[in-house]
Amino acid sequence: MNRSIQLAAVVAVLSLGACERPAVLAVPVATQVAVPGPAGPQGATGTQGAEGFTGTTGAQGTQGAQGYKGDTGRQGFEGDKGVSGETGATGAAGETGRTGKTGQPGDSTTVIVVQPSAAPAY
After folding, report:
1. Cα-Cα-Cα-Cα dihedral of 10, 14, 17, 22, to 10°?
2. Considering the entire predicted model, what is its pTM?
3. 14 φ, ψ to 5°?
4. CA atoms within 13 A on the CB side of 99
């Protein structure tokens, strides 16, 4: 606290001192620009250039190597026999039928059929 006034004074002097720098003026230098003169007469037409050479044909490439024949595959295994099915369950017993009706009494007449005797042979 006892040096804060001194520190503030130093900062103020430095701040104001920075503002008083002499300004640097840039003086433009006169540049000379080349101005072209009038155009001259047109020159003579040039000669035709020589025809270029044809390049040589490239060599043919060599044929690639033949690939190897693959191995024949092995025969597969025979499949296993399937499992036999299980025997079905026995069906339940049917219900007992109902008792039939009692027959009606017949007439009191009895018919007896007699067979005829064989005829005598002559």
Report:
1. 160
2. 0.17
3. -65, -40
4. 3
